[in-house]
Amino acid sequence: MKILITALLSFVSPLALAGGYPTCKDGNDNLDISNSKVLTWREHMEAKFQARALIKGTIVGVIEARQNHVHFEVDLDNDLSTSDDRLEVIYNIKFGDVPDNRPGDTLVACGDFIVDPYSPMKAVLHWVHKNPKGKGHEDGFLWINGNLTGQVSGK
């Protein structure tokens, strides 16, 4: 039985095991959803603190779209009646089109978290796309309602 399970798992896509989205890496480590950790960092770390993060939340809306970047407001606890648990996710459209979305849709993002006092949410998750140079930042991604983007090498 153990051999059969092992054989079956070897054929299962890593996307299927991760809930439909790719594995988010921090060096050699695979990251789990870190919503509560991100909110703690936002409140207790100094400006410009940076770390890798994987978040999953609900799209509240688009804050702005400018200079090839779309800025999403994402609720991290799925209670849309509160706003103290939101994060700004910034996506560069040079790395792929933004999937169709609307408020209430599920967003998963892997990228670089940074405490940013200039953000309306006091912190951002950015670099949620492939790294075209292969150094300096790890690859990230944006996943909205089962649609993956951010994997194009940049235009």
Keywords:
alpha+beta, OB fold (Dihydrolipoamide Acetyltransferase, E2P), 155 residues, 15% helix, single chain, disordered N terminus, five-stranded mixed beta barrel, 3 helices, 9 strands
Task: Outline the fold blueprint.
Layout: H1 2-11, H2 14-17, E1 25-26, E2 29-30, H3 35-44, E3 50-66, E4 69-75, E5 86-92, E6 106-115, E7 123-126, E8 141-144, E9 147-149
Parallel strand pairs: 5-7
Antiparallel strand pairs: 1-2, 3-4, 3-6, 4-5, 6-7, 6-8, 8-9
User: Helicity level, as a percent range?
Assistant: 10-25%
Q: What's the helix-strand series?
A: HHEEHEEEEEEE
How many individual β-strands? 9
How many domains, as an integer?
Answer: 1
Highest CATH level, the class:
Mainly Beta
**Molecular shape:** globular
Q: State the fourth-level CATH superfamily.
A: Nucleic acid-binding proteins
**First-to-last CA distance:** 49 Å
CATH topology: OB fold (Dihydrolipoamide Acetyltransferase, E2P)
Structural class call reads alpha+beta
Strand content: 35-45%
Runs with pLDDT <50, length 5+?
A: 1-14
State Rg.
16 Å
The major pleated sheet works out as: 5 strands, mixed, barrel
Order of strands across the widest beta sheet?
Answer: 3-4-5-7-6
Count of discrete alpha- or pi-helical segments spanning 4 or more residues: 3
